[in-house]
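Q&A log
Question type: sequence-to-structure
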Amino acid sequence: SNGADGNAANDIGSTTNKWRDGYFSGTVNAASFVGSSGAYLPLAGGIMTGAGQIRMPDNFQLQLGTSADMEIYHNGTNTIFDNQTGALIIQNNTSERMRITSAGNVGISNTLPGTKLHVGSGSGATVDTGYQVVIDSAGIAGLQILSATTQSGRIVFGDSGDNDIGMIKYDHTDNSMGFRTNGSGNERMRIDSVGNVGIGTT
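Response status: OK
Response body:
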């Protein structure tokens, strides 16, 4: 039969011209379409060569696995990776770097994340699932906040009534640390750069 462009020279069975556009249904046997120019895509058992693009319309699903266990598509607004079974794992140089479990927990350098975000592993401690973020290490575990020398680093506490009702603030302009409660403007205690502590005074 002729190719989708109506030219017999571009027939699907040709070994000298790429087959352009087409539709498949049912089972497609392994084959390679060799193009005289541009890119071609082997259906199985080969590697795509040449330069070009593979473009699929919105809501066209690329399904992976014998039971469509993984689907990748764009719905017109967002790109969706829909993993139906097991965990979604991201590897680099054959080593796992991140995974999202079927429960929605994210592990970075952790294959068994115990809460919403679990970074690192090795402490041997049990995760308290009441906390959404865990930093885990067999060595030093920590959270670092970096700011410019003219700015401050802050840990802010909030609720539905006030999104910054409490604050711990390190001010890099004078190297002091302040503690604020019942409103971010209410400093209750300060430790200055030489270690003096003021309660009710700045």
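Response note: Residues 1-37 have pLDDT under 50 and may be disordered.
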